[in-house]
Amino acid sequence: MLERPLRVLQVVGRADRGGAETWLLHVLRHIDRKQVALDFLVHDRVPGAYDAEIRARGSKIFVCENHRNIWRQFWGLRRVLRDHGPFDAVHSHVDYFSGVIVLLARLLGVRIRIANCHNDHPAVDHSIPLRRRLYILVMKRFIDWFATAGVAPSRAAAAALFGPEWQSDSRWGVQSVCIDLHRFSYPAEQRDVRAELNVPADAIVFGHVGRFVEQKNHDFLIRLAEILVSSEPLSRFLLVGSGPTEERVKKAIVERGMLDRFILLPPRDDIPRLMLGAFDYFLFPSRYEGLGLALVEAQAAGLRCFASMAIPPEAIVIPSLVQQLPLSAGPEYWAEAILRQMGAPNPVTREEALRKVGQSFDIRQNAAQLVEYYQAAVS
Fold this sequence. Notes:
Blueprint: E1 6-11, H1 19-30, E2 36-42, H2 51-56, E3 61-63, H3 70-84, E4 89-92, H4 98-107, E5 112-116, H5 122-125, H6 130-146, E6 149-152, H7 155-162, E7 172-174, H8 190-196, E8 204-209, H9 218-231, E9 235-240, H10 246-255, E10 262-265, H11 271-277, E11 281-284, H12 293-300, E12 304-308, E13 322-325, H13 330-341, H14 350-360, H15 363-378
Parallel strand pairs: 1-2, 1-4, 2-3, 4-5, 5-6, 6-7, 8-9, 8-11, 9-10, 11-12, 12-13
């Protein structure tokens, strides 16, 4: 029995706003640090949105740049383990590159090596270049050979990284990722929130929260918006996020003459207030998702949600609030389904919605489960 907290090194690309990183920050806020201490290894010197709070809570952030260079990764990880260890476990959240992380951790003598999958994208993998497919194949093999454990937020995500027979291997499992839902219990005055954003008081606001990447399918969302506006002129679209496709999305909005219909906001930490005070509906046309925490948040806010079929069932907490629609049917089909629902009363109150989501996605219980998971892995 250790007389000190277990030390776990969390590996992320950057401590920035994203599903996995936000979950880890919320875990850090609620985990019993007398039992488990978390530090972070990042692959970018660009400051992350969560850096200051991570350090303020007593955790360290180590930088190991140029993650594409395996030798530099080896020496960087070796330096961290030598100068700041010992670490009882390395927990990697960098998708397929976790294969390299668990390999290097094995070579450097780390006994517990955990690969965490946060996405489900097998369909996408079949459409990518051969070189990328070979990389994915090798990384999956490394994870199979060198990871002592692996977790995913849904069954689909587990199958994507650990293989279709993942349930037959006791190393792999499903563990939910949660967020602090406490702020959804605070009322938000719609008039004030919309006034801050210059949204007309009588507008029908469709919201979306997600990084500007191909996965989130903003192109589909813009085509959908164009159809909805033609049928309901009061429609407005509030998108929160940033990322590599942002400029392309902005250009498409301008080209379609809908600049006055869209409000684009950078990542921010008051998503509950936006959902409660600005959104009327939530759109989530993702091409793939490991879970989809933004959709969970939207349900906690009591919003009617329209999501793609790619969303795993684990994210559908209140089925009466979520209508899943096939992307293959096109934006016209989506628009018809949305227009049929507009104006209908919500099937649950906001208080009831928050209570139901809290039963499945309570961060305090989630953090306690993670402590137990680490303790069981080390014992």
